[in-house]
Amino acid sequence: MPPPMDWLSRLLELTPVRGQLDLRCMYGAPWRIDQRESAPGEMAYHVVLGGTAMLENPGGKPQPLVAGDIVLLAEGDAHSLHDGSGKRAKPARERAVANLMISENAGAGARLDMLCGRFVLSPAHAQLLRSYLPTRLIAHSTARAQNATETGLHLSNLLALMRAETNDDGLGGRAMLNALSTALFALTLRFASESGEAPAGLLALAGYPRLAPALTALFHHPGHAWTLPALAQLCNMSRATFVRLFQEKLGRSASDLLIDIRMTMAANELRSSSTSTAAIAEQVGYQSEAAFQRAFKLHTGVTPAHWRRSAP
Q1: What mean pLDDT is predicted for residues 225-247?
Q2: Residue 310 vs residue 127, higher pLDDT
Q3: pLDDT, tens only, 135-174
Q4: How do 101-105 and 92-96 pair as beta strands?
């Protein structure tokens, strides 16, 4: 019998994420990075190892960053980072080392040391994560060093290990850096859920213990015929209170989350097995295959049969 699994592990099982470190930026002011919109299924990330930076992206206020800050752009939006001086940036040049690309400039001002990479998902799986993560998540891993949580300490240690690996040309270093990037994704989400740094979405919901039983139930038993009264009862609250708090924290309803989990689970099953559509429909909580077919097409834009045929 497999061991019990928490909701975040279950989410990452449904929507596997692969981390990839692309660049270490070592600049002197003035400097600037303009990053284009990410490819489908990719989320850009940045880790400030040393120095400071200003983050700008359309629709958001400029955000100051300091050493230890981790930026995750779930929607993959175009964005800019700069030193904040307003001066024309010194041109950067790249050089390859054994396991990494280093970007440097000739700026003589305040120094920046930053890692830039991406988290890669299957485009088909990206919707579930992107729909429930903040558009721009910034985790301040060293903001409360005097009162660091266990997760905060783990995150700081992970960043230190990533820095060490980028300083070393050790055997297997590239694989190590990408594996650490993958771990960075899960650990950053855990840290944000515990620290209350996520303004809305699954991480904000997870940071509200009263709703945890419903969240666990939806991720572990999506095929169950859940009703709002039943989920509210799991949380020991009235239906009205449950609906209000769930919507307030998540930004969407429990029914929306349940459908997204079911459709992601069905999409995985259709591509990884030869199980019949009718059996998959029942597995994810639909008594009628026709109802499942309609829901799946509404969610993905294609029928289950087309989805299965287009499997890579």
Answers
A1: 94
A2: 310
A3: 888 988 875 554 568 888 899 899 999 999 898 877 888 8
A4: antiparallel
Classify residue 211 by its DSSP letter: G
Length of the chain: 312
Of 76-80, 106-110, 148-152, 182-186, the range with the lowest mean pLDDT is: 148-152
d(CA 236, CA 214): 10
Range of the domain at 249: 208-309
CA distances in angstroms from 97 to 101, 112, 118, 153, 169, listed in the order given: 6, 19, 19, 29, 7
Q: Which long-range contacts (CB under 8 A, 24 or more apart) does 225-233 make?
A: 225/285, 226/254, 226/258, 228/254, 228/255
> How many domains in the chain?
2
Task: Label residue 1 by pLDDT band (50, 70, 90).
Answer: very low
Residue 187's CATH number: 2.60.120.10
User: Could you give the CA distance from residue 265 to residue 199 in angstroms, rounded to a whole number?
Assistant: 27
Query: Could you tell me the two tokens for 192?
Result: 């944000």
Contacts for 127 with CB less than 8 Å, ≥ 6 apart: 260, 264
Residue 251 has which token pair?
A: 């930004």
List Cβ neighbours of 271 (8 Å cut-off, separation of 6 or more).
307, 308, 311
For residues 263 and 223, membership in a common domain is answered with yes
Mean pLDDT throughout 214-228?
93
The partner residues of 116 in beta bridges, in order of sequence, read: 23, 46
pLDDT, one tens digit per residue, over 73-105 is: 988 889 999 999 999 999 999 998 878 899 999
Helix, coil or strand: residue 251: coil
d(CA 201, CA 189): 11
Query: Of 161, 153, 155, which Cα lies nearest the Cα of 187?
Result: 155
53 pairs with which residues across the strands? 65
Contact status, residue 90 vs residue 106, Cβ threshold 8 Å: yes
In a domain, 38, yes or no: yes
